Amino acid sequence: MKARYIKVSTGALNTARQEEIQAQGERVFTDIVSGSTPFKDREQGKELIKAIEGGEINYVSVSSIDRLGRNLYDILTTLEFFKEKGVILKVDNLGIESLIKGKENQAFKLIISVMDNIAEMERDAILERQREGIALAKASGTYKGREKGSTEGIDDFLFKYKEMIKNLKKGNSIRDTAKICSVSIGTVQKVKNNT
User: Fold this and answer.
1) What pLDDT band is residue 49 in, cutting at 50, 70 and 90?
2) Predicted TM-score (pTM) above 0.85
3) Cα–Cα distance between 75 and 176 in angstroms, integer?
C-alpha cells in the first residue's frame, strides 16, 4: 500500500500544498512538529514506521526530502530504514524514486550524496567561522574560552554525541559515522574509544 507523509511545523501552517499532490488511495500520515524532531520520535512518523514494519506500507511519498528531517543524519537514518525494508520513497519536488525494480536508483543515491557533501561543507564553514571569531576575540582580548587546565568529563563529552553512539552501535564505520554526523574522524574515534 502507498502512503504520503506530510509535515508542518505548527498547526497554523496549512497542509493543503502537500495534500494537493496526494494520489488516490494513499494512506496519509500528518505530523505537526518541528523539523528538528527526529522522524522516529514524531507521532505519525512512529505510526508510519510501525505500518512499514507490519508490511502494510511499501511506498512512501513526500513533497520534499526535508519533510523527513532538518538535519542530514536524521534524513539518512530514515532513508536507510526505508531501504532495509524495501520501501520506495518518492520525492515529489525532485520527481524521483529511491528504488527502481527493487534496486537502488543511482540518480537518487547521487542526489543524497551531494546533499551529504553540502552538509559537510556547511559544517566545515561553520567551524572555520568559529576559528576566525576566536582569533579575532583573542586579538581584541575579549576571548574567554575554557578555563586553563579544566577538562570536560567523559560523561559530558559522550552526552553531546548520543546520535553518533547509536550510529556506531548499528555497525557503521568510523568514516561513515563521521560523514553522517558531520564531525571529524578523530571525534568519532574518541567517542568509540570511550563507549
Assistant:
1) very high
2) no
3) 15
